[in-house]
What we know:
The structure is a homodimer. The first copy, chain A, is mainly α. The first copy, chain A, contains 5 helices and 2 strands; from the N terminus they run αααββαα. Chain A has a two-stranded antiparallel sheet with strand order 1-2. Chain A binds chain B through residues 25, 28-29, 92-94, 96-98, 100-101, 103-111, 113-115, 117-119, 121-122, 125, and chain B through 25, 28-29, 92-94, 96-98, 100-101, 103-111, 113-115, 117-119, 121-122, 125.
Amino acid sequence: MVSFSGLQFHDRAPVYQQIAEYLKRQILLGTVQDGDPMPSRRELAAQTGINPNTAQKAYRLMTEEGYIYTDGNNGSVVRLTPELRAAIDEELTRGLVERFVEEAKQNQLSYKRVIALVSELWGDE
Amino acid sequence: MVSFSGLQFHDRAPVYQQIAEYLKRQILLGTVQDGDPMPSRRELAAQTGINPNTAQKAYRLMTEEGYIYTDGNNGSVVRLTPELRAAIDEELTRGLVERFVEEAKQNQLSYKRVIALVSELWGDE
DNA sequence: GCGTGTGTATTACGGGTATAATACAGTCAA
DNA sequence: TTGACTGTATTATACCCGTAATACACACGC
């Protein structure tokens, strides 16, 4: 059963999008695999403290994007193909860095300074 | 006269916030300096194709943040102190990188991979 | 059968954002 | 003085987001 107990919301994106993104992260981490059952709408809502309607909206989004499917009354299940996994990696990894680089350039930051700041702010490693 | 003709809006933030951020970028670039006159609300609205009320909202935000002040009926003027400039740099530079690093860590990206991706996607330089 | 849980749908409300249409008072040049 | 511009304010509408309260049909175990 896919768990959303570790999900912490922020206010920079709609809640239902954050839920979908959380699932994608779990997929990339290998925590969630093809065929894994999703909690019910009401259970997810209870886990995360949101409204069941918002949970339903998240499931609709994930269904539209192809990451889950719903079998009648038996709940929803994760669907994962190599293509979907590649799409997630593209969005969460390259897409993240692409948006950052674009914004950094828009702010006229130099490559050198960006690298220095990333190194400084990364902390350990 | 401060110009907003180069401003291109996106939909990830309210328009009035994007206007304020654009001014801050111009300040960091040195294009805008202390005492520079701002266009009128209606002129900014015409320049950028937005509603004068939204422009007014942006001016109110910039006034509250201290980057402009309004002299009665004579229009608004940019105010720039070393403290304000430092605050802008903190927000637009360090803040940007901080949010990126946080999100990258949340997605379990390694420091090494992030640096590699930034280098790859940066292009020239 | 009955209760519980399931997915799904509808309606309503509040808040934030943006637009739209005005309105008013002040300034200033013609 | 008149007209055009200025900043400022108000009201209305519309959309998205999230919550809230229901409602319905279906499936399953007791």
